[in-house]
Amino acid sequence: MGGKSTYIHSVGIIAAMAQIGSFVPCSYAELMPVDAIMARVGAADYQSRGVSTFLAEMLETSAVLRSVTPNSLVIIDELGRGTSTYDGFGLAWAVASYLASPEVGCFSLFATHFHELTSLAYHMPKRVANLRVLCNVSNNNEIVQDENEFDAKVTMLYKVEPGVCSRSYGLDVARLAGLPMEVIKQAEYQASKDEELESIWLKLDKEYFKSLEDETEFIHFFPAVSIANELCPRLVQILDHVIKEAESDKNLSVDSITSTVAQLTRELLLQKPNNLPTDYLLNLVKN
């Protein structure tokens, strides 16, 4: 609704138009030649082939990672939403890290609802930058006619600027859609708890990097990021495994794929010496 998907899709279309010598719908543009424009967008399954939404995501992502070069343009929209939050975030982090790595370093646009993913800019400064789409939200939530109608207006500005969104406007959109008041209140309660955890999550990540700069000892309290970083070098191998399983077993389930990721995670944590709170992390990835 904010326009981020439209924005990144438009960049791909404009790049293609410019490269074939066409006029582009811009008053001004800075463009560079690319050897390929690759996209992983949309969310759909292929029931006739026994391919789930998540498996379709992985197959398309695998095709991108196999073909990408430093001169490619890559557009990824909402990677990881077809599976659990932890696995989805871990894969999104690992794919984004891979694309931004010095070995690849292609120009990429990566739209996501995983707010924690914004901390990748701290992990990879000068290689990753955060952008946000702007909107205005009225603060007057007084009941207008009945308990289901609120005077809360979300106005999308359709502008992009550097920075991180300070909050999600999903509940405001839910009000506009007319969801019952009791459902909205319950959603607000649950969201407030998640926001508190997310705030702690981001603060710990900043403290982690501050401790690195100070050259002091530290414990990495960032389980999801730690797991993702450990998995990053193995990402292509994980996707290879998924594809081979899909080719031999058309009834492959999402549970079997996530179990494979969890098993690889456990192996990495047990085999590679590190300063991570291993027992706690292993509990996070138990089946």
TrEMBL record:
SUPFAM superfamilies xrefs: P-loop containing nucleoside triphosphate hydrolases (SSF52540)
CC terms in the record's Gene Ontology section: MutSalpha complex
GO molecular function terms attached to this record: ATP binding; ATP-dependent DNA damage sensor activity; mismatched DNA binding
Domain DNA mismatch repair proteins mutS family: 72-88
Record's keyword terms, sorted: ATP-binding, DNA-binding, Nucleotide-binding
Pfam family, one: MutS_V
UniProt keyword DNA-binding, yes or no: yes
A biological process from GO: mismatch repair
The protein, known as: SJCHGC00949 protein
